């Protein structure tokens, strides 16, 4: 039997400090279930001015949430569950067991629970972090055979949490809140820099650098010296479809299999689910510098990725179409920004829905019109936008490190592994 450290005791939740206690959520607060007026969409109940919390609000705002997507009438609010500004709530459907504080008086529907009359021995901010820390365990308590069943009021009421002394709860909350503040500051910097990039793209991709004479074209007003070319006109060969291989476990040192789902927003390669492939024909599908791939079907139609050599060997899948940009005519990085622009996405939205099924084939992509400055101006524009992307990457890297720091602190502070001085 494992020896318990001095100053600690063994409980059902593991080894904890001797002056901490284990308490059930139902004994420490009044837990109420949200409610929804029926029938859904009835103008008697819906479409008024009373905010109603939705899961999209929580995933957007995080700790302090302001409902912005759904509203009830006064009659609808009477059939829902009104909560007060500052109340702690938790999702029980969609993105489950996610806590947040209401920034305004709001109603919650039956996909949420609220915590009222919180015991005086429990600091509300501490409870928020405790739920966040125990979120996976809370979800597992409502899971049967790997399938999420339902996070009921009874399950939540009988769920055990750790309760330190009040001053320690407050100090723990203060430490974690300070990290949250840094994450929020970094988030704001990311959003502001993305807005800067958006404005720069609009200006640089339509007016260029130092141009004074302009002309009207089929894609809008552009500098007089620029040309309009189809994607096929600046490519070496036609658009090529990828390999139809089955994804396998990735083996370090082997090529990675690039699928539609591996391409994120702003043409970035994702690293959360790396896969390999086992196909002897893979070599002719290896991406090279100046290659750009486009998603051709489904809800991801239009997403693109310009190959970056630092991403290693990539073999592109069958639901992607590759165009190899001719470096004598175009800078692939300039093209990368053109196909992130609003005009490109407006074109995608029109092209991909004409048949009723989202999709754009190789011949259609080949005809996409691109505004083309001279190579030197393309290089200058790419350099400016790349520098903004680098700044965004730095902020996102900082945010990831802060999130890892918060995760580590929660694990140590909320279990009593490390004690805070009070």
UniProtKB/TrEMBL annotation:
SUPFAM superfamilies: DNA methylase specificity domain (SSF116734). Residues 17-192, 225-403 form the Type I restriction modification DNA specificity domain. It comes from Clostridium saccharobutylicum. Keywords: Coiled coil, DNA-binding, Restriction system. Residues 385-412 form a coiled coil. GO terms for molecular function: DNA binding. Transmembrane segments: none annotated. Belongs to the type-I restriction system S methylase family. This is Type-1 restriction enzyme EcoKI specificity protein. GO terms for biological process: DNA restriction-modification system. It holds the Pfam family Methylase_S.
């Amino acid at each position: 039997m494992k020896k318990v450290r001095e100053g600690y005791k063994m409980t059902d939740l593991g080894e904890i400090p001797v002056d901490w206690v284990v308490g059930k959520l139902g004994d420490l607060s009044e837990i109420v279930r949200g409610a929804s007026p029926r029938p859904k969409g009835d103008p008697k109940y819906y479409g008024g001015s009373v905010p109603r919390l939705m899961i999209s609000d929580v995933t957007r705002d995080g700790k302090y949430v302001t409902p912005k997507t759904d509203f009830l009438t006064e009659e609808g609010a009477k059939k829902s569950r009104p909560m007060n500004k500052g109340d702690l709530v938790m999702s029980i459907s969609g993105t489950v067991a996610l806590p947040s504080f209401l920034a305004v008086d709001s109603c919650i529907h039956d996909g949420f629970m609220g915590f009222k009359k919180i015991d005086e021995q429990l600091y509300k901010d501490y409870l928020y972090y405790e739920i966040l820390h125990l979120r996976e365990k809370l979800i597992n308590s409502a899971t049967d055979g790997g399938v999420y069943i339902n996070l009921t009021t009874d399950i939540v009421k009988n769920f055990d949490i750790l309760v330190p002394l009040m001053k320690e709860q407050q100090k723990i909350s203060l430490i974690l809140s300070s990290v949250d503040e840094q994450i929020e500051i970094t988030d704001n910097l990311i959003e502001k820099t993305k807005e800067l990039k958006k404005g720069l793209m609009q200006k640089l991709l339509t007016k260029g650098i130092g141009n004074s004479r302009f002309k009207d074209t089929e894609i809008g007003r552009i500098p007089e010296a620029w040309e309009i070319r189809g994607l096929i006109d600046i490519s070496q060969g036609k658009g090529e479809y990828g390999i139809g291989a089955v994804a396998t476990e990735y083996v370090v040192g082997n090529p990675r299999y690039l699928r539609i789902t591996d391409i994120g927003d702003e043409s970035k390669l994702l690293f959360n689910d790396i896969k390999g492939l086992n196909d002897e024909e893979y070599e002719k599908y290896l991406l090279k510098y100046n290659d750009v791939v486009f998603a051709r079907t489904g809800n991801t139609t239009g997403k693109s990725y310009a190959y970056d050599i630092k991403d290693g060997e990539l073999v592109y899948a069958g639901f992607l179409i590759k165009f190899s940009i001719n470096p004598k005519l175009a800078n692939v990085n300039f093209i990368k920004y053109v196909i992130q622009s609003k005009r490109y996405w407006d074109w995608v939205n029109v092209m991909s829905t004409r048949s009723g099924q989202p999709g754009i084939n190789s011949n259609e992509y080949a005809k996409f019109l691109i505004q083309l400055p001279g190579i030197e101006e393309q290089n200058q524009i790419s350099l400016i936008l790349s520098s903004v992307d680098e700044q965004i990457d730095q902020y996102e890297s900082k945010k990831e490190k802060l999130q890892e720091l918060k995760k580590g602190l929660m694990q140590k502070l909320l279990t009593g592994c490390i004690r805070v001085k009070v």
